[in-house]
Amino acid sequence: MRIRMEKRERLLERGEEAYPVKPRRTHSLAELRKEFGHLPAEATTGEVVSVVGRVVFIRNTGKLCFATLQEGGGARLQAMLSLAEIGDQSLADWKALVDLGDHVEVHGEVISSRRGELSVMADQWSMASKALRPLPTLHAGVSEETRVRQRYVDLMVREEAREMVRTRAAIVRSIRETLHSLEYVEVETPILQLVHGGAAARPFETHLNAFDQKMTLRIALELYLKRAVVGGIDRVYEIGRIFRNEGVDSTHSPEFTMLECYEAYTDQFGMAERMKEIILNCADVLGTRTIETEAGVVDLDGEWRWLGVYPGLSEVVGSQITPETSAEELRHIADVHQVKIAPDWGSEKLVLELFGELVEPTLIQPTFVYDYPPSAQPLARPHREDPALIEAWDLIIGGMERGTAFSELIDPVVQRARLVEQSRQGAAGDDEAMQFDEDFLRALEYGAPPMGGIGLGIDRLVMLFTNTGIRETILFPILKPVGDSRA
Q1: Alpha carbons 40 and 349: distance in angstroms, whole number
Q2: For 329-363, b where at least 16 C-beta lie within 10 A, e where not — what string?
Q3: Share of the chain above pLDDT 90, in %
Q4: Lowest mean per-residue pLDDT among 136-145, 266-275, 340-349, 464-473
Q5: 121/165 same-domain check
């Protein structure tokens, strides 16, 4: 860095700019590749251009120097600097001042080298941005830790990193296009909230100075979107950031992106069709409905089956489990299968934990897991046939939950009782319990239409299609600080 700083100073002392406002640029590197990529070896074009790119390879030998320039999309082009074309001083300046990582402007004719490499034969060059830190060696790659902590470096040197950004953008765009085709309306709802709800999660707390009021960052999009449906926006959605003050691992981040959409006059089965359409359209945009995952090959064109929580658990443990199965018996099953549980968990919580540990990882092909016990989702409607269950499903693909949906609870009396119970649990020390939201209940009391709703984790959907962990799918993930921030 000291040597590079000295080079920067030398440029400034000579009255040249190390960071000009706007370099000359007549063509992108990709445009030249497209237009002249067919040139045979040693061909000339007579086309004079000015290009700008980051130097990712450099070879300074004698009277002819070579450099590879790269632009943001990953396109590369060779620059050739010949003593005969640019003169002694300019060539000497190139050798003395240019390093890997610098952005440079090169002006000259488009040609093909003796080896057939598309090139610009420079007659002028200038600095576009002097890099003060050296790039990692391209062939050695970048460590995983550096990749996630310094994503900008990762993007510079790895095409896979740039492709991840494009893939995620394509998935989000496809989701929006699918929902727009179904006449959904996109809205934005508050991130800062007085009352946290819509999920079982610990919120981040903050303070609004203007009102001298404690606030939280939202843990879900649900409750405000349902207010919109009450108001007459029959099909509504939001793709937004969610914040949950919880653990960090390969599948969880404290800050992540969710799609939530709600539709009047449908139920969990209608929303299952919506979910399937969303995911299949994403697959088609990416070019395949067959996905390689660590858990196995997923065939999205195969059956999307439905599996009840209790029958699914019964099959795996080899005995019949029902909503009437006692907590004592479930604790025994947990002990036999070495599933860690807490001594104060009731039967419903035990069933959910056992299913998550023993059954969910085995569900590789798309599976709608449904008929949950009521405590699983306080905002879901009671089952139309069995009061011991609720109308909700989780979509499991590749052994991991990707999304969820309910036939939404719209009875304000039942919802009030559910939220009162959540408040009791919070008062008893459950920091993931929802708070009591009187305004949400007031909205329901005006009459909410029957509706279905979806929650889809964007990050987990990207994880599915790219077979990566959550830190790779989030461009700038939250990480534990280490060492000096200048390191």
Answers
A1: 69
A2: ebbebbeeeebebeeebebbbbbbbbbbbbbbeeb
A3: 80
A4: 136-145
A5: no
What type of residue is 225?
L
Percent of the chain whose pLDDT exceeds 70: 98
| Contact (CB, 8 A) for 118 and 39 | yes
H-helix or E-strand spanning residue 357 = helix 347-358
Asked, for residue 9, whether it belongs to a domain, the answer is yes
Residues 163 and 198 occupy one common structural domain: yes
346 lies in some domain: no
Q: Is 473 helix (H, G, I), strand (E, B) or coil?
A: helix
- Domain co-membership, 117 together with 177: no
Can you list the positions of beta strands (E) in 100-186? 103-112, 118-129, 185-186
Helix (H, G, I), strand (E, B) or coil at 34: helix
- Tell me, yes or no, whether 178 lies in a domain: yes
Rounded to whole angstroms, how far apart are CA atoms 96 and 99? Answer: 9
Amino acid (1-letter code) at residue 266: T
Angle at 219 between CA 217 and CA 225, to 5 degrees: 100
pLDDT above 80 for 482: no
Determine what percent of the chain falls in helix, strand and coil, rounding each to the nearest 5.
35, 25, 35
Asked if 157 contacts 143 with a C-beta cutoff of 8 angstroms, the reply is no
Strands (E), 113-246: 118-129, 185-186, 192-193, 205-208, 213-217, 235-243
Taken as a whole, the chain contains a residue count of 487
User: Is the same domain home to 111 and 62?
Assistant: yes
**Three-state DSSP class for residue 328:** helix
pLDDT of residue 60: 92
Shared domain for 114 and 210, answered yes or no, is: no
| Residue 484 counted as an annotated binding residue | no
155's tokens: 């993007």
> Is 122 inside a domain boundary?
yes
Look at the block and give the residue holding tokens 């040249």.
Answer: 16
Q: What is the 8-class DSSP label of residue 474?
A: S
Please indicate, yes or no, whether residues 299 and 442 belong to a single structural domain of this protein.
yes
For the domain that residue 24 is a member of, what is the CATH number?
A: 2.40.50.140
d(CA 450, CA 97): 69
Give the pair of three-digit tokens for residue 153: 């470096």
- Bridge partners, 242 (sequence order): 256
* Reduced 3-state DSSP string for 254-283: CEEEEEEEEEECCCHHHHHHHHHHHHHHHH
**Is residue 238 annotated as involved in ligand binding?**
no
Q: Please check whether residue 211 is in contact with residue 194, taking contact to mean a CB–CB distance below 8 angstroms.
A: no
CA–chain centroid gap for 51, Å, is 33
Q: Given the structure tokens 């070019």, which residue do they identify?
A: 287
Range of the domain at 64: 2-135
Asked whether residue 84 falls in the same domain as residue 118, the answer is yes
Tell me what the mean pLDDT of segment 104-127 comes to: 96
